[in-house]
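Researcher: Predict the fold of HAT C-terminal dimerisation domain-containing protein.
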Amino acid sequence: MLKEALSKTENYLPNDRVDLGASFNKITSSPHFGVTDEELSVVRERCTKFLITLTHQLLEKLPNNVTTIQELRLIAPNSAIASVGRPRFEQLPFDLAVPDIDIDKLEAQWRSLGTLTLKDINPEFSDGMEIDSVKFWGNVRQLSNAIGETPYEQLADFCLKALTLPVSNAVVERVFSIMNAVKTRARNKMQLEILQCIIRIRVHLKEVLKSCCIDFQPSHDMLMRFTSQMYESTRNPKDLGTPRQTSNSTAEGEDLLEMITLFDNDNESHDCL
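Model: Structure tokens for HAT C-terminal dimerisation domain-containing protein follow.
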């Protein structure tokens, strides 16, 4: 809409009516300014053209999915369970949903979620406090009823996946920087699988654990995998040792939380490993 308005010159104000700021008006209205009206008109015209050009360039830098990004505010904690002005289900950013998503089930869960309070989701939450969206939907996903079912799992997964949408290409650029630091000329024969593992470790240590390889403490599960069997190439690495038993649903949720934490952090990864 704004691009269309800028393309029509009849929408522009005359140069003498363009607001160039209080400082500009103060300087030009000073009796000691010493510039003729004709020269001032030229200055105003050049300033106006600069603002128009700047606006065009800013619009070009905006992502094409800016509308979808704006819709993410509808799944913010305070909006999701608001008693007044709660977004309608059809307003949610379904452009980010997978094709085979069960809309009816999501709608039922969204309506049911509106009956809960922040305390029902997490006793630490309270009205008026700033709540992290990832933590909120992570808690919603873990809610269970009397028979152990998770009644909001599909809705929480949808919202968590929506939150993985990066608002800029900074994350992608950061991963490429890490890749260039890992796969150097001296390591140019590194296989893709090893490269992916190293990048994942670097990103996880820095962005998720806020740690480094120097002070990283391996878990008991990791230590149990360090046996002679780890050198057997015919075995599946997941079968080594006694790995922690995790359901597919839980593992998927943990991966989502890790992915969102990565996209939500704009700090550059340091050299580790």
